[in-house]
Write a structure and sequence with these properties.
- The structure holds 2 protein chains of 2 kinds.
- By secondary structure, chain A is of the alpha/beta class.
- Helices cover 34% and strands 18% of the residues of chain A.
- In chain A, helix 7 packs across helix 11 (289-298).
- Chain A starts with 9 loop residues before the first strand and ends with a strand.
- Chain B is mostly beta strands.
- Chain B has 1 helix and 8 strands; from the N terminus they run H-E-E-E-E-E-E-E-E.
- Chain B has one helix spanning 19-26; strands spanning 31-35, 41-42, 57-61, 65-74, 88-95, 100-104, 118-125, 131-137.
- Chain B has a 5-stranded antiparallel β-sheet. Chain B has a 3-stranded antiparallel β-sheet with strand order 2-1-3, covered by helices on one side.
- In chain B, a hairpin with a 5-residue loop joins strand 1 (31-35) and strand 2 (41-42).
- Classes of the chains: A alpha/beta, B mainly beta.
- The A-B interface holds A 132, 134-143, 147, 150-152, 154-155, 158, 199-205, 249-251, 256 and B 9-13, 18, 43-44, 69-77, 79, 82, 85, 88, 90-92, 99-104, 115-116, 132, 134.
Chain lengths: 388, 139
Amino acid sequence: MSTGTLRGAAAIVGVADAVSPTGELDRRGRVLEAAMIAEALADAGLTLADVDGICCSGIATGIAEYLGIHPRFIEGTFVGGSGFEVHVEHAAAAIAAGLCEVVVGVYASTPRLDRRIGGGVPGASGPMGPDMMAAWEAPYGARVPMTSYALAASRHMAQYGTTSEQLAQIAVDARRWAAMNPRARYRDPLTVDDVLASPVIASPLHQLDCCLVTDGGGAYVLTTAERARDLARPPVYVLGAATASDHWIISQMPDLTTTSGTVSGPAAFAMAGVGTDDVDVLMGYDSFTITALLHLEDLGFCAKGEGGAFVQGGRLARDGALPTNTDGGGLSSNHPGMRGIFLVIEGVRQLRGECGPRQVQQCEVALCHGTGGMLGLRHSGVTMILGK
Amino acid sequence: MSEKTKYAKPLPRIDEESRGFWEACRRHELYVQRCRDCGAVRYYPRALCPSCLSDRTEWRRASGKGTVYTFTVTYQNQSAGFRDALPYVMAYVELEEGVRMLTNIIGCAPEDVRIGMLVEVTFDDVTAELTLPKFKPAS
């Protein structure tokens, strides 16, 4: 094993997800988590007996006990939506180091079902320590999550001349992808004018600049490159992965227009040995339109401040130069609270060529990038580069 | 019951690291911490300097003047205390001392707030025990 790199050591060999065009599922909690794991293992041609590692955002021993397994690798990093990219990175490192061979990662969250039938089943969440937001921001009316994104969008507009129309284009392109995904929550055509006509929630962000609230669950299976060659599906290798932790609350963020993708992105590209021009599909966490604009700049797809011009003309859409969030994204397909696992799952399916009408042709490299926790709260950036 | 006891918005919890800040606010003075070893000014207050980890800290009175780094006008918030205060302005104000704090801009119409505008601190005695520093357009 070479040091300092994970390139090609591990491969994702199975994926599964549960999302619905109604936005609501009929299973939740451990039941949904276990079902996702079973489906992802079946997809890989593996069984529970093969599993010796498990990842979730929280305390992994709970789901391990439920499944009756005793993994020797557990990973419960809880950093919000990008946690699932962290898990893949850490699991790949553990596999590369020989600590384990077959790792499953899982997520389930059903805010809509919980609201309807009550008795919510919260996902395991890690201890968060002193709540600095409650101490220094909530008294002024800060709302999770939109406040920090609105503050960033406001600053980006003033500093770089970015417009609401440009941000709206990101939502429009996500909807164009969603129209090709029968399981996406919203599939009707959307225009820039529709976005601008939706109510302003926190200026400058409109309702349609914000991601959805849906139910969802998913899982993936990761194993050694050697073992991956003989399994049911074509392996999707982890070529590059990097994490960058930034700040907990927004007053500690040095520049509201720059995310920690400026650190995780170059590190992941360097490990993978590819550049922005090599990326065939971008799965970038689009919690809000501004989030998607910032990671385009910070990962180097365009220069800082030029994201608005970059997205004009549909560059992120079906026939654009940088197909992005091909399932419809958090803006139009699904967003159960922490969407990171779905970025990995869609990336894997694009590389396997399984995406039907929304399949990107000659798809060799997928980049999955999570910003968060959130932009202004518990902020970290994680970049994952996957390839065949 | 006085109006003050009906205050419905969330209140910060005062602890040993933040007490000096909040006590100063009750006197209508804005204080920031400064490291006595490396000189770095910090906000929010904490026991160790995040630049050099020194615990030698002094409180410095801030000028109370700053500029709006960015802001947002909130139009939807149904939580107690805020639903009757819509729309309200949250801003990230950069103090002359170099630190930034999240706060509210009051004393002008939301549509008159601009990034880069000069503001000065004003104190809102929200309860008998607690005063929040907010900012208004500089006089």
